[in-house]
């Protein structure tokens, strides 16, 4: 990367928006009121960030650092407990399995969502009859409310009356207890999550493919590149920026998946499909007596994980912006 | 400059992720106290009632009943129905912000928790009369020698059976007296090519609710989950699953999905509650109800379901008198028949129970079951109950799914419960 591109990128970063620049130049000529106008335009955003992001986050952190009982929650005099709730969460027998499930759930979901999404994107990239209609149909999982898709999946995977076991029965495979055996429940929710995540990958990667100039393919074809070669030498490398963003966004989304798991298995049986997201909810709201402190602590751990990947995303985005 | 802009963007992105990932913050709140009721206190204003019956809308009998009671007390009533699992946190949050409703109707095992939090007034303060209420029902609303509300009605669990399936298998429901005869009946049903029994063993409070009749019916006590009696109850269910008398889906069944299985007409028995009575008539097959048998005979104590009507603490104690009128209107002997019929509950007082049976002989078995029933928070467990219940449903799930033996599961549950209640 040359020095000049770097400088240009920085310049554009500094004067981030025409409004800013305009406000400054006019500010030299006239009174200070345009400065105030600028602030007035900024205020809604700042207020929005403070009210809906900063304050809830602050409360969540505070919640996780205090020893809340139902009584102290109501009276508002919960004693400061430092990292007591975190220590409790780390020592909990649920911690290691929940962490492992979160990792497996996220990575396996992503791998399949991306692979299938990419395959479909490449497939739909050659425009054929009805391709637009078919592509639209593939978006259905995305459009359905999660409660509907998760309920449908749990109905299909029902041990006794589910359609999946019925089909497996025809080909001579015994009933699989998809949702009710500890060996399968995590895989069941992963399968459902993959299905739900494919359209997201398909849409992003499809639009990424549109941006690759056809001339590159023509050149490759003239050089005698075969189909697989064209994919691995042209499509895949040129799609890398879009792929990276797709995967990172998917990562952040998948880490916090809660509804699918909760509707299908409630994290069970006996914790076999519990991830950080469902564990946090269970601690905070899943019992007759809420444990707000530990629940918030688990939620914050999840936030830290998402944040780490979010920062990675920003790094990659910056690198792409500069190249 | 570069690093500053990166920092700024990082913060922005970070905040966006945080908002997406952090859900718990929703239960936090400001510290404002007691301002919400000031206006109400000044002019009387409407009286707020919260209940866990969101299925009833404005045109329902229930809401009409509330409005009538308001009219009798000379006030306007503002009613909100919440999902029952939502109501505890809503009530705690409202109390924290000083805008509790005037009348709060909550699920009975929650009463001791709210009492512990200082959210509810005692009957000494609110002058509610609980003398006529059956002691086994009232116990769920008592803690530390004080009473925190009046049961609006009660429901409990029993075994529904499908007459056709039992006839086909040659089983007489009257012969089922204990666990052995029930298991023998299930075996006959299976041999006849039908399905045995369905229940709900889901990993929530609902699972504990359904498991308790067997646990208590074995003679076990919640303070010692891993007693031989407690393990025997888990082993009974586990055995049924292993032998195919009960479907594997019970592990994920709610009481509603379990009922749907029974309604398919394939099952001989279903463990379910009073509230399914109306649905039972719609199934299209002849059904009957027997009490859940104890291990060695007799009727097993089933847990009481149903809500308590309570009066939350208010900054303006002058409101209690009117709230008391509203609650009395819903629970007094004269009106209780209407209330319980509206909610399809069994009345909490013997006098009204007799009236109910006189009106509908079918309710006899339920009245008996309610008389034998026991509050989950009874035996002085109070707020300890939820901390025992969670490991217990976990153990049932672990044993049924085969990840632990009944003994291992209950031993682990007892260890967890002991450390949580210490």
CATH H-level superfamily of the largest domain in chain B: Periplasmic binding protein-like II
What is CATH's topology name of the largest domain in chain B? D-Maltodextrin-Binding Protein, domain 2
> What is the count of DSSP helices of chain B, taking H or I runs of 4+ residues?
19
CATH topology type of the largest domain in chain A? MetI-like fold
Mean pLDDT across residues of chain A: 83
- Most extensive chain-chain interface: A-B, 68 and 66 residues
The run of helices and strands of chain B is: HHEHEHEHHHEEEEHHEHHHEHEEHHHHHH
The Rg value of chain B, from CA coordinates, equals 24 Å
Instruction: Give a quick account of the main beta sheet of chain B: strands, pairing sense, barrel closure.
Output: 5 strands, mixed
Radius of gyration of chain A: 25 Å
Number of helices of chain A: 17
Give the termini distance of chain A in whole angstroms: 7 Å
**Low-pLDDT residue intervals, each spanning 5 or more residues of chain B:** 1-43
Structural class of chain A: mainly alpha
Pfam families (chain A): BPD_transp_1
Keywords (chain A): Cell membrane, Membrane, Sugar transport, Transmembrane, Transmembrane helix, Transport
Organism (chain A): Thermocatellispora tengchongensis
Protein name (chain A): Multiple sugar transport system permease protein
Task: Please provide a written account of the structure.
The complex is a heterodimer of chains A (323) and B (422). Chain A folds into 2 domains: 16-64; 85-322, MetI-like (MetI-like fold), CATH 1.10.3720.10. Chain A has helices at residues 3-14, 18-29, 33-64, 70-75, 84-91, 95-125, 131-138, 140-143, 146-156, 163-170, 185-210, 214-222, 227-238, 240-255, 259-264, 276-285, 292-322. The termini of chain A are close together. By secondary structure, chain A is mostly helical. Mean pLDDT of chain A is 83; it is low at 1-27. In chain A, helix 11 (185-210) packs antiparallel against helix 14 (240-255). Chain B is an alpha/beta fold. Chain B has 2 domains: 42-151 and 305-372, D-Maltodextrin-Binding Protein, domain 2, CATH 3.40.190; 157-303 and 378-421, D-Maltodextrin-Binding Protein, domain 2 (3-Layer(aba) Sandwich), CATH 3.40.190.10. In chain B, the strands form 3 sheets. Chain B has a 5-stranded mixed sheet with strand order 2-1-3-11-6. The longest helix of chain B is centred in the N-terminal third of the chain and has 20 residues, at 2-21. The N and C termini of chain B lie far apart (55 Å). Mean pLDDT of chain B is 85; it is low at 1-43. The chains are: A mainly alpha (323), B alpha/beta (422). Chains A and B meet through helix 1, helix 3, helix 4, helix 16 and helix 17 of A and helix 1, helix 4, helix 5 and helix 18 of B. Chain A: It comes from Thermocatellispora tengchongensis. Chain A: The chain crosses the membrane at residues 36-55, 98-124, 136-156, 184-206, 238-264, 292-314. Chain A: Its main location: membrane. Chain A: InterPro entries: MetI-like (IPR000515), MetI-like_sf (IPR035906).
């Amino acid at each position: 990367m040359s020095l000049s591109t770097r400088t240009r990128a920085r310049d554009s970063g500094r004067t981030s928006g025409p409004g800013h620049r305009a406000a400054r130049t006019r500010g030299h000529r006239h009174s200070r009121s345009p400065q105030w106008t600028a602030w007035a335009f900024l205020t809604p955003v700042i207020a929005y960030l403070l009210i809906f992001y900063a304050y809830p986050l602050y409360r969540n952190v505070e919640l996780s650092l205090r020893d809340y009982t139902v009584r102290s929650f109501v009276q508002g005099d919960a004693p400061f407990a430092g990292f007591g709730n975190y220590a409790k969460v780390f020592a909990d027998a649920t911690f290691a399995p929940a962490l492992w499930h979160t990792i497996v759930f996220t990575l396996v979901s992503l791998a399949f969502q991306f692979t299938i999404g990419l395959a479909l994107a490449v497939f739909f990239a050659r425009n054929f009859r009805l391709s637009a209609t078919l592509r639209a149909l593939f978006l259905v999982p995305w459009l359905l409310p999660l409660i509907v898709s998760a309920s449908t999946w749990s109905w299909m995977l029902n041990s006794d009356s589910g359609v999946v076991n019925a089909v497996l029965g025809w080909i001579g495979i015994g009933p699989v207890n998809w949702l009710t055996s500890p060996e399968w429940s995590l895989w069941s929710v992963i399968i459902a999550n993959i299905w739900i995540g494919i359209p997201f990958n398909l849409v992003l990667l499809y639009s990424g493919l549109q941006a690759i100039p056809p001339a590159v393919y023509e050149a490759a074809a003239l050089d005698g590149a075969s189909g697989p070669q064209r994919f691995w030498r042209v499509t895949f490398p040129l799609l890398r920026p879009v792929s990276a963003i797709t995967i990172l966004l998917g990562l952040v989304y998948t880490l916090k998946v809660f509804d699918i798991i909760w509707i299908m298995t409630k994290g069970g049986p006996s914790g076999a499909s519990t991830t950080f997201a469902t564990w946090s909810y269970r601690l905070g709201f899943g019992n007759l007596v809420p444990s707000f402190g530990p629940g918030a602590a688990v939620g914050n751990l999840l936030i830290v994980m998402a944040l780490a990947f979010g920062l990675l995303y920003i790094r990659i985005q910056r690198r792409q912006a500069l190249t | 400059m570069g690093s500053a802009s990166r920092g700024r963007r990082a913060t922005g992105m970070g905040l966006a992720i945080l908002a997406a990932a952090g859900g718990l913050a929703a239960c936090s709140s400001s510290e404002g106290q007691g301002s919400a009721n000031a206006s109400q206190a000044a002019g009387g204003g409407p009286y707020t009632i919260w209940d866990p019956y969101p299925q009833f809308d404005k045109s329902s009998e229930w809401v009409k009943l509330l409005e009538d009671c308001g009219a009798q007390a000379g006030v306007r009533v503002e009613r909100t129905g919440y999902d029952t699992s939502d109501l505890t946190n809503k009530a705690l949050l409202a109390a924290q912000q000083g805008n509790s409703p005037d009348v709060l109707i909550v699920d009975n095992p929650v009463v001791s928790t709210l009492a512990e939090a200082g959210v509810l007034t005692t009957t000494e303060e609110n002058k509610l009369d609980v003398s006529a209420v059956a002691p086994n029902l009232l116990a769920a609303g008592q803690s530390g020698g004080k009473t925190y509300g009046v049961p609006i009605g009660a429901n409990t669990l029993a075994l529904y059976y499908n007459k056709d399936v039992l006839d086909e298998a040659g089983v007489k429901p009257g012969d089922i007296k204990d666990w052995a005869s029930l298991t023998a009946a299930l075996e006959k049903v299976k041999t006849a090519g039908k399905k045995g029994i369905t229940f709900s063993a889901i990993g929530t409070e609902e699972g504990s609710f359904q498991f308790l009749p067997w646990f208590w019916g074995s003679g076990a006590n919640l303070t010692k989950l891993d007693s031989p009696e407690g393990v025997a109850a888990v082993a009974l269910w586990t055995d049924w699953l292993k032998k195919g008398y009960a479907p594997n889906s019970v592990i994920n069944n709610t009481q509603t999905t379990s009922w749907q299985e029974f309604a398919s007409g394939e099952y001989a028995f279903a463990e379910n509650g009073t509230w399914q009575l109306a649905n039972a008539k719609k199934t299209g097959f002849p059904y009957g109800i027997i009490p859940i048998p104890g291990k060695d005979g007799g009727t097993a104590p089933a847990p009481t379901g149903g809500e308590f009507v309570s009066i939350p603490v208010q900054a303006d104690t002058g409101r209690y008198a009117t709230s008391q009128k509203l609650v009395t209107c819903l629970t007094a002997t004269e009106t209780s028949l209407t209330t319980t019929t509206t909610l399809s509950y069994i009345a909490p007082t013997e006098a009204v129970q007799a009236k109910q049976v006189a009106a509908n002989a079918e309710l006899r078995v339920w009245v008996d079951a309610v008389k034998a029933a026991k509050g989950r928070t009874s035996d002085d467990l109070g707020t300890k109950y939820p901390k025992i219940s969670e490991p217990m449903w976990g153990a049932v799930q672990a044993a049924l799914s085969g990840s632990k033996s009944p003994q291992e599961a209950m031993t682990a549950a007892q260890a967890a419960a002991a450390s949580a209640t210490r």
